[in-house]
Amino acid sequence: MIYNVIKENMYFDSVTLMLFSSKLNSIAGINQAAVMMGTDHNKSLMKASGTLDEKYWDQIQANDLVIGINAENQDAIDEALRVLDEQFANKQSPSDQGATKRVRSLDGALQEMPSLNVSVISIPGRFAKVEAMKSLKKGLHVMLFSDNVSIEDEIELKDFAIEKDLLMMGPDCGTAIIGGVALGFANVVRNGNIGLIAASGTGLQEVSVIIDKLGGGISQALGTGGRDLKKEVGGRMMLHILDKLADDPMTEVIGLISKPPAEEVMAKIIKKAQRIQKPIVACFLGGDLAAFANTNIIGVSTLEEAAVELVQASKVDSKVSLQDPNEQTWLEQVADSQGTELRALYTGGTLAFESLLILSEELGDVYSNIAINPELSLKDPEVSFGHTVLDMGEDYFTDGRPHPMIDPELRGERIVKDGLDPKTCVILFDCVLGYGSNDVPEDSIVQAIQKVKERRPDVVFVGSVTGTSNDPQSLSRAEGTLQDAGAFILPTNAQAARFALKVLKKRGVIHG
Predict the structure, then answer these.
(1) Which residues contact 386 (CB under 8 A, 6 or more apart)?
(2) Could you give the number of structural domains in the chain?
(3) How far apart are CA 235 and CA 208, in angstroms?
(4) 355/363 Cα distance (integer angstroms)
(5) What pLDDT is stored for residue 19 in this prediction?
(6) pLDDT at 94
(7) 3-class secondary structure for 147-209?
(8) Residues 284 and 332 in one domain
């Protein structure tokens, strides 16, 4: 039996929704339960999973909270509603744990802790500008996780922040490390003398963890938001942070990470860099390295190359090799397959984009929901076509539901779906650790691999783990568990993409 509750204009963040759903699904007699925002995509998912009665479809709006319960009997439904009421009450009441104290306003927070200097904001985009401006006017740096903020509002916020000599990281900024403190999706890395500025979250994570593996360390790692380097925004925050890191005594080397800036913005960055007396390494994925000729910027093509150059420039004498000595042995284990297509299924957007670039060099046409060439855009993100690179952190998949780095269930289901497709030969994936990420992100991948291997033992799984030994999750456990499940795990995302190409060559999909 299906039971639905619709709470009009009630918003909860994606982490809370995932926890609510998890609590309900653990109740005896519950076949399936879901707590989601009422977007069309989520309604479709709930209908497909048997948790939404179709008669409610038209009355549910995107800002409504929808509770869907598919249960064996009324007793299970009653218990689910009791647990849900308890969860709502816990969410709205003060916490008694430790020294944590909940407040209801920014003024209340500052009254409790006058030394606060950073505000982290994650609310619906239509309210974000007002709250961000409040924080800036109070003299706080802002990390704005929210998306769906207009370009005009972003420009206004950043201009005000620059005038007040503050950081305005975002909108859509998910990762930062400030003074050794990780915010959002970030990893536990060594302190050091390398400062990073990134318009991409998982790009910043990948570079910072490789730096850590090589023995280097981070002074600051600051996000700008994904649109900062577009022509309209003009690189306002990247240029501002460049000035800040140029004056920061803890920062001796600077790294820039993003997709290629607009031409006008690139010119501004190069002009600014000429006045900075510190080594600068830039990884603008897919950009033309010729732009850095006759400048003091070292241009590189991959996130791994950026990390290596930054560590070298930081004067760290690294003895660590990033090359995996098992590659040749692994290739010898690869048997023939009738499949001829690669499917890359990612939770990290920048990691997906880096792989798309690497794979396209040898595969030619690669279809994607983040394709550079519009002709190679997937017609339906739910259906892979040909060689496919899919970013499952894109808005289509995260509208009203947790990001796949928080809740990897959808990505796991997609691995099974594509893995059982007889055309599939290789599946490429990422696994991202750190604060904010799922406690055991490797588990959903392992379960998916096992389901595929039962019917398609010829499918080769290739991946990498973005994380450090000090992250809340266990890097060694994640890598070991994935390898035990039969996946080939490479030290970096770029190496994983290149190894996937080697598998395709071994199987005759790529010639030459």
Answers:
(1) 341, 365, 366, 367
(2) 3
(3) 22
(4) 12
(5) 73
(6) 46
(7) CCCCHHHHHHHHHHHHHCCCCEECCCCCEEEECCEEEECECCCCEEEEEEEECCHHHHHHHHH
(8) no
Q: At what angle do helices 349-363 and 493-506 cross, to 10 degrees?
A: 30
E-assigned strand segments in 252-300: 253-258, 280-284, 297-299
Cβ–Cβ contacts within 10 Å for residue 250, how many? 16
Q: Are residues 430 and 373 in the same domain?
A: yes
- Burial group, residue 249, by CB count within 10 angstroms (0-12, 13-18, 19+): exposed
Helix 14-25 / helix 74-92 crossing angle, nearest 10 deg: 150
146 burial type by CB count under 10 A (0-12 exposed, 13-18 middle, 19+ buried): buried
Residue 425 has what pLDDT? 97
What are φ and ψ of residue 178, in 5° steps? -120, 115
Buried b (16+ CB within 10 A) or exposed e, 357-387: bbbbebbeebbbbbbeeeebebeebeebebb
Residue with tokens 């003024």: 107
Cα(356)–Cα(370) distance, integer angstroms: 9
| Residue ranges for the chain with pLDDT beneath 50 | 94-99
Write the pLDDT tens digit of every residue in 84-138: 998 888 765 544 444 456 777 888 889 888 889 999 998 888 889 999 999 999 9
Cα–Cα dist 425/445, whole Å = 17
Residue in 190, 197, 194 with CA at minimum distance from that of residue 251: 194
pLDDT at 100: 57
Amino acid identity, position 134: K
| Structural tokens at position 153 | 């509002």
Does the residue 512 lie in any domain?
A: no
Both 332 and 291 in a single domain?
no
Residues 75 and 111 in one domain: no
Find how far residue 10's CA is from the centre of its chain.
Answer: 26
Which whole-number Å values give the CA distances from 216 to 27, 245, 280, 304, 392, in the listed order? 47, 17, 15, 13, 31
pLDDT given at position 99:
46
Residues β-bridged to residue 38 = none
Strand, coil or helix: what is 344?
strand
Please state, in angstroms and as integers, the Cα–Cα distance from residue 303 to each residue in 28, 365, 374, 375, 466, following that order. Answer: 46, 22, 25, 26, 12
Q: Note down the domain range covering 63.
A: 2-92
Q: How far is 108 from 87, CA to CA, in rounded Å?
A: 24
**478 class by beta-carbon count within 10 Å (0-12 exposed, 13-18 middle, 19+ buried):** buried
Pairing between β-strand 65-71 and β-strand 181-184 as defined by DSSP bridges: unpaired
Same domain, residue pair 138 and 255: yes
Question: Residue 431 is encoded by which pair of tokens?
Answer: 């696994």
Calculate the CA dihedral of residues 12, 18, 23, 25 and round it to 10 degrees: 130
Residue type, 371: A
Torsions phi, psi of 269, nearest 5? -65, -45
- The DSSP letter of residue 193 is E
pLDDT score for 171: 95
